[in-house]
Amino acid sequence: MSTRTPFAALGFSRVTPRLPRRLAVFSALAALAAGTALVPGQALADRLDDIRKAGVLRVGVFDANPPFGFVDAKAAPVGLDVDYAEEIARRLGVKIEYRATNPANRLPLLASHKVDIVAANFTITDERRQQIDFSTPYFASGLQFIARKGTLKQPDDLKSWRLGVDKGTTQETTLRQRYPDARVIAYDDSPLALAALRSGAIQAFAQDGAKLGALLATLPGKEQFEISPFTLTREYMGVGIPKGETRLVAAIDGILLDLEKNGTAARIYDKWFGPKSAAPLPRDFTIGSALK
């Protein structure tokens, strides 16, 4: 399981043999007669078979966003998303290979076929669904802020503030829409934004509330800061999957639902958000439950 296979050796490229012209025309007409539209690159695509053939699941994960994805003292990826990725690979019967990503690079990683899936605190939105598919949600959270104590009491306080966000996140989109007069500054990752918060370059940092507890716990001078008492949104996170890979979506959905049923999902949550964790947070969402 620990052996890492180079990307070039995995055999992920797809080469479609060229059919004789008469046979190709016949095949196309037969497909149309059956009511099936031939979509180049989609009808023949089956990432699930590719993964099983290669024996490796390539996963994009965060490397600096605890507790969802970060590196431990041994430089190994760990976190809630990493634990889910490990379970998915194990139940598919393949090894796992990680690729570090940041919020802005998640969609490009999938589009360029450098990973098979992305498990990186990936919020499900209609806009993103136009480019990729998502699994059923496995986590829920909402938009909150870290600011200096006593300065942020209600949403209206944000109207003219300097607000920091991670680039390419739903938080960036939400704040630009809701607070057109605020100055929204996008950073490549959370550590850069938090450094800006400490220096005063921004007045508040916006992120998923579930993530802020762990970030605040490790923030130098944390006693000077606090998490906002209000939440702006309710958001759901899923595994990002290339568009059109219906069998892979179904396989991952089945795995996630089974993890909920057998108690694994609850154990993963308790590991990162339970009473003994760095940032305790009661669990208010279960996989397969109705979305609010």
TrEMBL record:
The keyword Signal applies. InterPro entries: Bact_solute-bind_prot3 (IPR051455), Iontro_rcpt_C (IPR001320), Solute-binding_3/MltF_N (IPR001638). Residues 1-45 form the signal peptide. Keywords: Signal, Transport. The keyword Ion transport does not apply. Residues 56-276 form the Solute-binding protein family 3/N-terminal domain. CDD domains: PBP2_BsGlnH. Residues 58-275 form the Ionotropic glutamate receptor C-terminal domain. It comes from the Bacteria. Belongs to the bacterial solute-binding protein 3 family. This is Amino acid ABC transporter substrate-binding protein.
